[in-house]
Design a protein that fits this description.
This protein is of the alpha+beta class. It has 2 domains: about 1-210 and about 330-540, Porin; about 215-320, no CATH class. Helix content is about 20%, strand content about 45%. The protein has 9 helices and 20 strands. The strands form 2 sheets. The protein has a 14-stranded antiparallel barrel with strand order 1-2-3-4-5-9-10-13-14-15-16-17-18-20. Helix 6 (about 225-250) runs antiparallel to helix 9 (about 295-320). It is elongated.
Length: about 550
């Protein structure tokens, strides 16, 4: 039962909340939220999206402060026959009320220096008030398991809870150089500081056996599973010991040559009639036929029965141990690094083209366990691989008129270069069939000199296979629509307000468990609102 909490820890918690690849967030500014396409940005958020484009800001100091509030509901439905009710739905609520992005840029004209702080992965907390199928199925298996050995049981219950949180903060610095009016380049470096926390429990497991045994009468009421199995272990262990003692007691008779004497004639070798009758009755009660048994055969019968009852006591003991309350309180932390290269090309005042390449972030997390009740689910000091894939980003901005801007972006994530099973020891589970892709289009129109409205669409094409998908970690193709407005408060201050909603294509997988074909379906709903302020301090 302790294996019920085999979480897909890293990818589940560190996975993206919105735009981005499997474990990468790219929804990093309110300008992105209202346009969905920022890879060719030449505003302050270019610090993240297009570092080479910072040179287009103009000489001076520039600051962008952003925060988004993100809310996501994840729903898993599973039809494993042992679950009650069946099929059963599990809902997880994820929230990130504070999802900041802070960018600083200083442009001299030829040289630009910029820095940013933002959650490049994770960024939220997930709560499953009733657990998940992978937690509950092991509990549910107790019912058919007991029925198969003649212990009628129809119900189970347990209090199951899981909560996880994650923050992968990125600290990025860039240096840019303007080669000429058309071309600028930049090189950057990002430090990723990761922290995942986990807390959860499976407790108060109960069942309703209808069984007269173990020295007590269980009449179908709900009882503690641990107590039931502990009683069973004690009772069956005692029976095993008694039967072993009976077998040993017959050894002196066999040693003295009485092994071939029929048990029914045991009085001929010193046994009392009461002893013979007791042995015959016990053999009959245990399902044997003492009629033609010799004393040696009866000893073998008692010895074998002792072994059987001892095994059953061991099974009961294992159940008793595995149905005890389980608690988890642990965290994983680590630091990774990745270089970033960027180029910006402006062939005209209307057209801007940008490309950025982020190298793979090698990230190893170290586990710290704060309790000793998790039964090995987490191992203190264990290392887990949580690499973030390399990414190629390309963007185009086109100012069709002074008031109208069109924009498009593409992100390509090199997921095949990452082993998402969390281990650095081959062979690795092949979870990726093709690299993740992302495409976006946006439009902005200036209603007045100060007020601009915008909208955008972004679609993702995932490349995961069924080995990646599970109740804690699943990825689907999406379509996201965002919109908002920008308002120039003064020549130095811009306000941006936006929101977006993401539609997910339903996904499902089938797998076998205990001879049953299980269908598990996945769904998500995500929305956000955000506000940002940009400040521009021109060089005098």
């Amino acid at each position: 039962m302790r294996k019920l909490l085999i979480f897909v820890f890293i990818v589940f918690i560190s996975g993206n909340l919105l735009a981005g690849g499997l474990v990468t967030n790219t929804n990093q500014s309110i300008m992105f939220t209202r346009l969905q396409s920022r890879n060719a940005s030449t505003d302050v958020d270019a610090v993240y999206f297009n570092p080479a484009g910072v040179s287009k800001l103009g000489a001076g100091f520039h600051v962008s402060l952003n925060n988004q509030s993100i809310f996501q509901t994840k729903t898993v439905t599973n039809n494993y026959p042992a679950l009650s009710p069946n099929p059963k739905e599990y809902v997880g609520e994820i929230s990130a009320p504070f999802y900041p992005g802070v960018y600083l840029a200083y442009n001299t004209g030829k040289l630009s220096f910029s820095a940013g702080v933002n959650p490049v992965g994770g960024g939220g907390g997930a709560t499953y008030e009733n657990g998940l199928p992978s937690f509950e199925m092991g509990v549910a298996d107790i019912v058919p398991g007991l029925a198969s050995v003649g212990i009628p049981t129809t119900k189970y219950a347990a209090d199951i809870f899981f909560k996880g949180s994650s923050i992968y903060m990125g600290y990025q610095a860039n240096i840019g150089y303007k080669i000429n009016d058309m071309i600028s380049v930049a090189a950057g470096f990002r430090i990723v500081s990761a922290k995942n926390t986990y807390s959860g429990s499976i407790k108060n497991i109960s069942i309703n056996p209808n069984y007269q045994a173990f020295g007590a009468a269980y009449n179908g009421g709900m009882v503690s599973a641990t107590q039931f199995f502990t009683d069973g272990q004690t009772y069956l262990g005692g029976v095993s010991t008694q039967l072993a003692g009976t077998a040993s007691a017959l050894q002196p008779i066999i040693t003295q040559g009485g092994g071939d004497v029929p048990l029914s004639s045991g009085t001929a070798v010193g046994m009392t009639p009461e002893q013979v009758a007791t042995l015959q009755g016990t053999i009959t009660a245990l399902g044997g036929d003492p009629t033609d048994m010799t004393i040696a055969q009866s000893q073998a019968f008692f010895s074998g029965a002792s072994t059987t009852f001892g095994y059953q006591a061991g099974v009961m003991g294992a159940y008793a141990n595995s149905t005890k309350d389980i608690y988890v309180d642990a965290e994983e932390t680590g630091t990774g690094y990745s270089p970033i290269l960027s180029v910006n090309f402006s062939p005209s005042d209307k057209l801007n083209i940008a490309a950025k390449y982020e190298f793979k972030t090698n990230l190893e997390l170290t586990t710290t366990v704060y309790d000793n009740k998790s039964g090995g689910i987490f191992v203190d000091g264990e290392k887990v691989i949580a690499d973030m894939p390399a990414m190629l980003a390309i963007g185009v901005d086109y100012k069709a008129t002074p008031k109208l801007m069109l924009t498009g972006s593409m992100n390509y994530y090199f997921d095949k270069g990452v082993d998402y099973d969390g281990s650095d020891i081959p062979p690795h589970t092949p979870m990726i069939d093709k690299n993740f892709q992302e495409y976006a289009l946006g439009i902005q129109y200036g209603l007045t000199e100060k007020l601009r409205i915008s909208g955008g669409w972004l679609t993702t094409i995932t490349g995961v296979n069924d080995d990646y998908q599970n109740d804690l970690n699943f990825d689907m193709n999406t379509n996201t629509f965002g919109g908002g407005f920008g308002y120039r408060i003064t020549n130095m201050i811009d306000l941006n307000i936006a929101g977006q909603y993401t539609f997910y294509k339903d996904s499902s997988k089938e797998y076998d468990r205990n001879g049953a074909t299980v269908t598990e379906t996945y769904d998500k709903q995500t929305w956000l609102i955000g506000v940002g302020l940009d400040f521009h301090f021109s060089a005098k």
